[in-house]
Amino acid sequence: MSTLRFSVVEKAFQAKAHEVALPAERPGEYFAKYVFNREKMFKYLPAKVYERLVDAIDNGAALDRSIADEVAAGMKRWATELGVTHYTHWFQPLTEGTAEKHDAFVEPDGKGGMMEEFSGKLLVQQEPDASSFPNGGIRNTFEARGYSAWDPSSPVFVVDDTLCIPTVFIAYTGESLDYKAPLLKALSAVNKAAVDVCHYFNPEVKKVIAYLGWEQEYFLVDEGLYAARPDLLLTGRTLMGHEASKNQQLEDHYFGAIPSRVAAFMKDLEIKALELGIPVKTRHNEVAPNQFELAPVFEECNLAVDHNMLIMSLMRKVARSHGFRVLLHEKPFKGVNGSGKHNNWSLGTDTGILLMAPGKTAEDNLRFITFIVNALMAVYRHNGLLKASIMSATNAHRLGANEAPPAIISSFLGTQLSRVLDHLEESSDEELVTLGGKHGMKLDIPQIPELLIDNTDRNRTSPFAFTGNRFEFRAVGSEANCASAMIALNAAMAEQLAAFKTEVDALIAGGEEKIPALLQVIRRYIKESKPIRFDGNGYSDEWKEEAARRGLDCETSCPVIFDNYLRPESVAMFEAAGVMTRKELEARNEVKWETYTKKIQIEARVLGDLVMNHVVPVATEYQSKLIDNVYKMKTLFSEDEAAKLSAENIAIIRQIAERTAFIKEHVDAMIDARKVANKIVSEREKAIAYHDTVAPMLEQIRYHIDKLELIVDDRMWTLPKYRELLFIR
Ligand code: ADP
Ligand code: MG
After folding, report:
1. How many CA atoms lie within 13 A of 671 on its CB side?
2. How do strand 146-150 and strand 157-159 relate by DSSP bridges?
3. Which residue from 278, 344, 486 has its CB within 8 A of the most atoms of ligand 1, so it is best to mutate?
4. For 71-130, what is each residue's pLDDT tens digit?
5. Which ligand 1 atom lies nearest to the CA of residue 295?
6. Handedness of CA 345, 350, 352, 354 (dihedral sign)
7. What is the pTM of this model?
8. CB neighbours of 208 closer than 8 A, spacing ≥ 6?
9. C-alpha 472 – ligand 1 centre gap (Å)
10. Strand, coil or helix: 321
11. 291 pairs with which residues across the strands?
C-alpha cells in the first residue's frame, strides 16, 4: 500500500492558511521600499549627479565614470541602511529565468583588514564568466568573455541582503546574449518610428513609450503532493494522471471565492511585490481548479518585463513559505485549461496620449486609426514570426489544443472598430478628401466612441485582440519571458511605422495634402491587412482551412515554427530596426532548438523512469493479487462456477497485461527514437526528430497509464492523483 501518497494527501487536507502579518503602513507607504527610485536618488545623490542620472534614464544620455562612482556611492549608502551586504548584476539570459552572481561589498584593505567597496566600475559593467549560459555558439568556451552592463532605465532594487542591478548581457564581440539588450533596441526603434508618425498629428511629441500590462496565470499545488510527483518536480507538468471525475465543467472556480490558504499566499505575495515597486492590482481564481491570476497596472515595457521576471521568482519563493509550489508551466494538467500570460500592449506619447485609444476630435481619431492599422499590418506581415516569438516546447501544449489561443495568429477588433475600418475601406476617393476644418468631415472617424471597451464584445479565442485602448497578445506562455514577444512586436511595429512614413511622405512630396495622403495609405493597408482580421471562433476546423487560404502561418510543429525567425523578411526587419543581426538570430534559434530537444528528452526519461519504477510494478502487483484470487476461487467453487465468478477479474488481469506490455514496448521504442535523434548533428533537425518521433509517444504511453490508474487498487497507486493535486488547498 502506498503510505507516502496517503500521508501527503492527509497532510495537504489538514494544512491551514498561514498567518500573514500586514505591514503597519498602508500600501502607499511601503510601495517601492526596496527600490532605488527617483525619490531615493534625489535623497541619496548630489543634485548634479541626480540630474545627470535622470537624463540618462529619460533620454539615454551616457553616464561617465565620475558620475557612476557617485551614483554607486549613493546606492551603497541607501542599501547599507537596509542591511544589504552583497550586490549582483541581475540579467535575463536565454534560459527564461534570471541570472545573478552575488559579490560582497567587502574588499581587502591591504592592511590585513576588510573595507566595504562599491565603485562606479562595479555598478556599470562586469564580466561574469558566463560560458555556461546558452548562447547558440556565439561564444565558444575558449572565448568566454561576455559582459553585463547596467541598464539605468530599470531601477536597482534590494532582495534580502543583495542589491540587484538590472543589466544587459552581451558577448565581448557585441552580440546580445540575453532578452534585455534586443528589447531595449526594439523599444528605441519603435520610439523613433512612432515619434516620426506622431509628428503628422502633433509636432510637440518627443517620445513614444511602449507599454506592457501582463496578466500572469499560474497553478498552486500543495508542496507535499508536489514532492510525491517526480514528473511535476522535474518537468513542471504531469506526464500522467487521469482526469478527475469533476474538473472545470461546472465553471465554479472562475472568479469564485479564493480559498483561505491561497488568499494568504496572495496577500503575502502582494505585499512583497509592492515593496519591490511592482504595482500589482488584480487577483482572481482562473478557469481551472487551483488556477489563479495576478495582474499589475501596466508600465513602460522594459520595466514591466523586469517586474514580470521578478514576480515569477517571488511567486516561487512566497509559495514555498505557504506550503505550496507554484506551477508556471503552460500545461501542468491534461484536461483542464493551461496558463498563459496575456500581454496588453500599447504605445503612448510623452504628451500623455495613448496612441491606440480613440480621441475627441477627427484628427485624434485619424491618429488612432493610423496606429491601429499599422499594428494590424505589422501583425499581418509578421504573423509567423509573432507565433515563433511565443512558441516553446511547453507553450506548444496550449496553443492549438482546443483552448485559447489557437496556433494561428489573427486579430479580433470588435464590431465597432471593424465597422469603422470597413467604412474607410469602402469610401470613394471623393469622400477621402479632407478631414476636419472647413471642409467638414465626410468619414465616420469622429463618431468613434471614446470608450470602445466593450466587455460583451470580447472574443476569448483571439490571440491578438483589440481591447479598447490596447492590443492584448494572449498567446504568450505563462512561463515565458515577456520580452521575447515584446521584441518581435515592437520591432515589427517600428519597421511598419517607418514604411508607412516613407509612403505618406512620398505622396506629400508628389503634391498630395497631408490628410488625404495619410488616408490613402491607411485605406490600402486596411485592404492589405484584411487576412489577419478574424472575429469568429478560433478553435474551429473551418478557421484552420480559411486561415490557410488567407496565407496565414498555420504550422503547428514548434521547431519548424522557429524557422520564422530566419525568414528573409524577419531578418530584414530585425536588421533594419537595429534590433538583431542575422548572426544573433541564427544563434538564438540554435538555443531554441536545443532547449526544445532537451525538454522533450527530459520528459521522455522521466516518463520512462515512472513507468518502470511506479506504474508497471504497481499494476503487476495488483494483477498478482487478482491472479491469486482467481486461483483461490477454484478451491471454493466448482470449476465452472469459479470461471464464471472470476470472469471480471480475469478481464482486468488481461487488460493489465496488455497495457503494461504496450507501455513497456513503447518506452523501449521511445529510447530507440531518442538514440536515433541524438545522433543528428543539426540542432534544427534533431529538434524536429524529437517533435515528430519522441513527443507523440509520450502521449501514447500516457493513455495506457491513465487507463491503468482507473483499474488498479487505489491503495496501491503511489502517485498523487489529479483529484488530490487539483482540489486540495
Ligand atoms: P482582463 O482580464 O479583463 O483582460 P485585467 O484588468 O485583468 O483585464 O488586465 C488588464 C491588463 O491590461 C492590466 O495589467 C492593465 O493595467 C493593462 N492595461 C490597461 N490599459 C492598458 C494600456 N493602454 N496599455 C497596456 N496595458 C494596459
Ligand atoms: Mg486580459
Report:
1. 11
2. unpaired
3. 344
4. 999 999 999 999 999 999 999 998 878 888 888 888 778 888 877 788 888 888 887 766
5. 14
6. negative
7. 0.94
8. 190, 191, 194, 195, 198, 347, 348, 349, 350, 355
9. 8
10. helix
11. 219
